[in-house]
Amino acid sequence: MNKVHISKMTGKLQGLQAISTNTTTNKFCNKMNKSNNIDVICKHCYSHSMLNTYRKNMQNALQRNSDALSLEELQDNDIPIINQLYMRFNAHGELINEMHIKNLFKICFKNPRVNFALWTKRKDIVIQYINKIGTKPSNLKLIFSNSIINTIVEPPVYFDSTFNNVDSDNMKDKQNCTGQKCIDCLLCYTHNKTKHIIEAVKINGRAINR
Q1: How many domains are there within the chain?
Q2: 193 in a domain, yes or no?
Q3: Which domain holds residue 105?
Q4: What integer is the mean pLDDT of 66-79?
Q5: What pTM was estimated for this model as a whole?
């Protein structure tokens, strides 16, 4: 059995693959999902909704990834060889600790022809680890996932862009993530000049009015 599980994505992410972890056991995710702040996007988390209902059967595979990536350093023969041009980290889940980001970097370094993209709210883990090792993989795009709806933030140090959610009737002229399949857009997966990716708040793939 491969130590790292790779998922084939569906819906908006159809055509892509991802290395994800278990949202439902992530302490950071659970804390954010239960926030008292109505403007925290994590209160509308698609992953929590899916993994606790119609995709509950995914939890075991994602938990194996949580354990494999966060508990110990991957050995060379545990690192998957990826035959894809684009790969997503954290389609489900969030960074758990420094070991997690270390192992994701190792996957990037072993697969230099693959374009990886990592969405994370844990800029603390990312910045601390890059400061420690002095570099980040050139084939990794770091996207800071902004937790507060209807705000647009600048990329933190080392990050290439930010992903921001707004109410569907807000900043309509600035929304540039508007429902197309990611594989047909690739704004988040390629290095480009776009610093702010903006999408309407969605539940089950549909924009909502809160």
Answers
A1: 1
A2: no
A3: 7-148
A4: 96
A5: 0.94
